[in-house]
Amino acid sequence: MSTKALSILLLASLILTVSDSTLLAQSADKEASKFAIPTTDEGLPGAGPIRRYEWFQNLWQRKRSKWATQVQQDQNAVVFLGDSITQDWGDTMGNSFGDMKVANRGISGDTTRGMLIRLKDDVLSLNPKAVVMLMGTNDLEEKAEPETIAANVKLIITALKKHNPDMPITLCKVFPSSADKFRPADKITKINELCAAVVKGDPQITVLDTWLLFADENGDAKLEEFPDLLHPNKLGYAKWAAALRPIFATQGFLDTKPEAFELEPGFTSLFNGKDLTGWGFRKTAPRKQPKKPRPNALLFVEIKEDIAFDGKTESNDHRFAAINGRLVVKTPVEGRRIQQLWTTAEFDGNFILKLEFRATPNADSGVFIRKPQLQCRDFILAGPYKDLKKYRPQDWNKLVVTVKDGIATATCNGELLTDNMAVPATGPIGLEGDRGQLEYRNIRLKKIE
Predict the structure, then answer these.
(1) pLDDT for residue 94 is more than 80
(2) The model scores a pTM over 0.70
(3) Which homologous superfamily does the CATH classification assign to the domain defined by 54-251?
(4) How confident is the model at residue 14, as a pLDDT?
(5) Homologous superfamily of domain range 268-448
(6) Strand 373-377 to strand 397-404: parallel, antiparallel, or no bridges (unpaired)?
(7) Among 29, 46, 65, 127, whose CB has the most other CB atoms within 10 angstroms?
C-alpha cells in the first residue's frame, strides 16, 4: 500500500473515531438531559415551587442519572421518597432495617412538586414493595402554602396507588423545624392536618406521627436531635428508624418469624401467635348518635352481636390481626377508632397477667382487666405515665398485672403504673384500639391464691 493510500485510510479511521465519539457524547448528553430540571413550569404537573438554583440543578441531574443505572438492582425495594432528610440517611438508610431491601430516593433541597415530576423514573420504575414518604419542608422555605403542598402530596399518592393498588404507603408527618428556618410550627401542623385528611379512610396508607415524635413544647425541633433545627443527627435517625420498624413488621418486611419464647410454669397462653382463636368482639350497648356529627369526632365502633374469630388470622374488619407471633392492633384508617377485642373466656379469682407490647409514636390503646381499662400507650408521648424511666419507645415493653382480692396492681418494665385499680369478680381480658398501632405478644395468665 502506498504512503498516500495509508494516509487516506488513517484519516478516514480518525474521522470515524471522532464521529463515533461525538455520537456517544451526544447520546450521553441526551440521556443526561432527560434527568434535568425542566427550564420552565409550563405543562408540569402539580403546583408550587420548583427549585432551579445551580447547585440544586446539578445535584438533581447527577442523582437521577445515577439512579437510572440502578433500576434493575433496586427492583421491589422499599423506596424512601423525600428531600435532604431522606438523602442524608444514606443509600442503606443507615443499615437500620436488617435484610429488608431499601432504595433511597431523597434529593437534598427537593420540593413536593419536584418529587412529583421525578416520581415515574425514580420510584415507579422500581416497582416498589412499599413506599415511605417524607416531604414538604422545603416548600415552606420557598413560601408555598400548606394547601399547595397537600395537593401535591395527594397527586403523588394518587400516582402510587394507580401504579399498585396493593402497595403499602407510609406517610410520615413533616418533622418539626423552626421559624428561624422559615418553617414555623403552625405551618407544619397545618400541612400535617391537610395531608392526614387527604388519606383519611384509605387502608393502603399508614400515617406515622413523626411530628410529635420530635417536637418540643413549642412544636419546634430539639437541638439535641436536629443540630441545625432542620436535619436529624444520629439520634434523630435512630428514632425515625425505631418508629418505622413496627410498621414494616406489620407490612411483612421485618420480624417475619416469631421470637422464641418459653411459657413459664403455671401460665396459660391466651394467644397462640398464629390466629385469633380465643378472641372475638363482644356486643356493645347502642350509643346515642349526636344530632350534628362533628367532622373529627371520635368513632366508637358498635358491635351488634358477639363474634368469635377462632381459626381466623384477622378480625372481620381487618383491624386486629395475628402476624408472626404478634397480636397487632393496626393504625385506624379514620385516624382514631375506638374498639375492643376480648377473650371469649372469662377469668375469676386472683391471677397474674403478663404480656409485652410495642407502640408506634403517640399510639393509644388499653388492656381491659375484666371490664376496667388499664391505659397501655406510647406512654412518654401519649401519657398518662410520662415520667417512666424504663419505658422503651417503639420497642418491646413488659406489662405485668396482678389481680388480688378485686384490686389490680400493674407495672411496666418493673415500674409501678397503679396499685389500686378495682376490678369486678369475673370477666374477660380485652385489648383496645384507638389511634396508632399497638402490638402484643406472649399474652399469658396464671391463677394464684
Answers:
(1) yes
(2) yes
(3) SGNH hydrolase (3.40.50.1110)
(4) 54
(5) Exo-inulinase; domain 1 (2.60.120.560)
(6) unpaired
(7) 46
